[in-house]
Amino acid sequence: MATSKNSGGLRQLLESTYSVIALLFILVACVELCDAAAAVDVYRLIQYDMSGTPFGSRFAALNHHASSLRFPPGADLSRTVLIIPLRELNVTFVREYITQKKPLGGLLFLLPEVLSFKQGGNKQVHEKGKMKKLLMELEQLLVHSNIPYPVYFAFENDDIDTVLADIKKNDAMGQPATATTGGYKLVIPIAEPKKVASPTITNIQGWLSGLKADEDANQLPTIAIVASYDTFGAAPALSWEVTAMEVALWLFLKWQGFSIFSTQTLRQEEAEELDLKVVLKHKKINISDPRVAWEHEQFSRLRVTAATLSGCPVAPELFEGTGGLFDGRQYVNETAIVRGVKLVAESLARHIYGHQGKSAQIFADESSLSVNPAYIRSWLNLLSQTPRVAPYLSKNDPFVMALKKELAGHADEVNVQHENLEGIFTFYDSTSARLNIYQVASVTFDLLLLLVLGSYLIMLFCFLVITTRGVDDLIGLFRRPPSRRVKTA
Amino acid sequence: MTMFHFFNCAILTFGPHAVYYSATPLSEYDTLGTSVKAALVYLGTALVKLVCLATFLQVSENDGFDPYQEILKAFIGFIDVAGLYFALTQLTHRNISQNHKFQAVGLGWAFADSVLHRLAPLWVGARGLEFTWDYILQGLEANANLVLSISLAALVSLIWLRKNKPKTLIPIIYACAGIVATMPSITSYLRRELEWHFPKVIGFELFTSLVMAFVSWQLFSACQRPSA
Hints:
Chain A: It is a single-pass membrane protein. Chain A: InterPro entries: Nicalin. Chain A: The chain crosses the membrane at residues 447-466. Chain A: It comes from Hibiscus syriacus (Rose of Sharon). Chain A: This is Nicalin. The structure holds two protein chains of two kinds. By secondary structure, chain A is of the alpha/beta class. Chain A folds into two domains: 32-195 and 431-441; 200-420, no CATH class. Chain A is built from twelve helices and 13 strands. In chain A, the strands form three sheets. Chain A has a seven-stranded mixed β-barrel with strand order 1-8-6-5-4-9-13. Chain A has a four-stranded mixed β-sheet with strand order 7-3-2-12, with no helix packed on it. In chain A, β5, α2 and β6 (106-111) form a beta-alpha-beta unit. The longest helix of chain A has 29 residues, at 2-30. By secondary structure, chain B is an all-alpha fold. Chain B has one domain (1-224). Chain B is built from eight helices and no strands. Chain B has helices at 2-23, 32-56, 67-90, 98-125, 134-161, 169-181, 183-192, 198-224. The chains are: A alpha/beta, B mainly alpha. The interface between A and B is medium-sized, with 28 and 22 residues.
């Protein structure tokens, strides 16, 4: 009798085991085996106020699920971060989202690795042009908009590429990531952005005095060569744009013992000898406009003759000509810079020393006064690796100190002036952070797991009671209360 | 949600011990004291093993399998057996039958092992955002360990507490005890030398634990019959 009951119990046990195993297989099929979390450096979009109007991305902290561009239409994205690689960027789509103020948890743009710190190499040169244009457009859109969620830039690498591929696969199956369906979660633990307290602009001035003949009673005229070393871009931590031409030129001229301050206009003959085309453009200046189109117009207002060397035929708009994310080291043509430096140096030398019209080249190649490409190259490398947005450079920034030191090595006298940037512009900090990508399981997975574990423990309990105490005891556990009632009755 | 996951893994790791205690007659005979004493003996044994490992083992740079080191580790693993012997024979227990004594000792032993090796990683890791299967696999390992500990306790009690054993079974008992005692070395060999993945190793452990439990159950019941 007892044995048949035992065998019946065993059969029931086996059947329930099979169902638990089947449930486990379903569980495994739902959630794949995952990799470890990835951590990536990310750079935030600039946040600034201009005369009180807010621009840029107004938030920094991020803690949302990730989604790609292939999200199912009509999905709620207010708690989702869209990851957009530059290759798939559609600027109209982003513009639509921003101008129509559609709710979004955040934006993460993935820039190709060629634009990063490391030299990108020569691969896909033809793609670079298209991407540069796209990035310029995107930057202009972002910098002039007020965006109420965090916007970050990151460089593509293997980790983030695999994550993105996985996200696209999940999105294609129609399962946008939420708390109940699992997926990837992007977390950036960073404090709320604060205003940069009294941002300063640093001007560095160097004087080199010329030789005065004793009988000359007049003061020697002054030639001022002005260059700006700062940048402005969509991501302040990535704005190492190369106004290097100007800075390199400036430093080179100092090195050659130049820079007596005077006013000067450029000579066309020297340019023709060096095979460069120089066009002199005159433009009327609007004195009442607080903004100046070209840098030399400031001087012109003070009745000082001035000119600006530029590659752009038309004056750039606000923040347009200051370079940005797309201006990388690879886009800089070293030989062009060397040629430009030589051109300016030659024309200045001929003016100062009175060699106009003569064809001899003072800074001829192979001579001791020739432009040193290695010197230019080393400064270009430094400039292209240092982000130089002015409000984020402190008073004693190492880069500014380096410029000052280099100038001091070649000029007689060096002055440094600090000026406060309060007033029209207010900038906010938190420009770069570390993004953590976690693969999270959904709540339903844990609920299922709880169910499985509960049934496993109950089964274990029943099994142990049956084997050690017998089936009668198991049934007795459930029948005790009624038996008491029977007794009293 | 992550606390939820921690809770799930915790009940997988520690639940079976509680279930075992309440389901079997152990709870009726109130053998909790025995289990607690066995747990303390386990802690002492673990300390002794740690000291021996630190003294005799050299730290190798590569993660490969060094036979000499592994044999040394296996020998140190026999300290486990000595600890169990101590817990079974030397400690004063209340009047419990031998049947229940080895179960209580094995249970306490396994519970202390789980707490020592698995509680800290579980608390630190399972509460994080990132999901891995590791903690669930660790829980399954704890289950296998429970079965193995009870089997080992049964075999040790057979060796030292039961005086009249059938002569033919004695070598089998010793062999089984040896296999169960060296299980840690076997699993580390599988993981490093043959490079099995964690789930495969856990599956192997579960399988062997069930097999060894069955074998030791048979041996125990065979020894309980009066010898012919």
